[in-house]
Design goal:
heterodimer, A: 76 residues, alpha+beta, Translation Initiation Factor IF3, four-stranded mixed β-sheet, B: 155 residues, alpha/beta, Hypothetical Protein Ychn, Chain: A, 5 strands, 38% helix
């Protein structure tokens, strides 16, 4: 897995909290820094794709492992 | 990218129907939208400082019940508060955000909330009962924003 600058554990949270928390965490980062998000909401896969597409932040990685979802988002 | 706009009219004042305007409003704000929600009629309950919303199975055959309850029984005293606390427990277990927290997130994200002055008067609400950030206006106020919105939703 690539390096990241900050981690957000959104496990157990449901829509729309993972996105709202990620947005907040990204706001505290500088351009080019990477946020690692851990989520358990299965809706998060499509939601993070849509979030990245609409905000211009890059979704570098999206993967599932043992019922958890992991995302790497690079701040635009 | 230029800022998109979302306009919502919120007309319902039950715990379940309080979620859609605040979920969509907060998410749209996170995606960079400018958001305005116009609260009218029972939707005004969503703006009360002291949120005390309920759900009722009455008149809502679509509500999944943990056990079958005949309609006549649903009208019994205590049923509404029982269903409300069961719904709140379920939401908590499933990691659904608490409504007051979701509303706070909307306020924080600068979602503009307008209370319909006509229905505020109709139901004798005091401005002091509603959130301090709320603005007051009428139909023309809604159209000023909705007229230039990309998305308008009625809930």
């Amino acid at each position: 897995m690539a390096d990241f600058d900050q981690e957000l554990d959104a496990s157990g949270l449901n829509c729309p909290l993972p996105i709202l928390r990620a947005k907040k965490a990204l706001a505290a980062l500088s351009a080019g820094q990477v946020l690692h998000v851990i989520a358990t909401d299965p809706g998060a896969i499509k939601d993070f794709e849509a979030f990245a597409k609409q905000t211009g932040n890059e979704l570098m990685e999206s993967r599932e492992d043992g019922g958890k979802f992991y995302f790497l988002i690079k701040k635009a | 990218m230029s800022e998109k706009k979302l306009a919502i009219i919120a007309t319902k004042g039950t715990l379940d129907w309080a979620y859609p305007p605040f979920i969509l409003g907060s998410t749209a704000a996170a995606l960079g939208y400018e958001v305005e929600i116009f609260f009218t009629f029972y939707g005004l309950q969503l703006l009360k400082k002291d949120l005390d919303l309920k759900v009722s199975p009455l008149g809502n055959p679509g509500m999944p019940m943990p056990f079958p309850v005949p309609v006549m029984m649903q009208a019994l005293p205590g049923m509404q508060s029982m269903m409300t606390s069961m719904m709140k427990d379920k939401m908590k277990k499933k990691g659904v955000v608490e409504l007051s927290e979701l509303r706070d997130l909307c306020v924080e994200a600068e979602v503009k909330m307008i209370a319909c002055q006509m229905t505020v008067d109709l139901f004798d609400f005091k401005h002091s009962e509603l959130l301090d950030t709320v603005e007051y206006g009428g139909a023309a106020t809604f159209f000023e924003f909705a007229g230039e919105s990309d998305i308008s939703l009625y809930m």
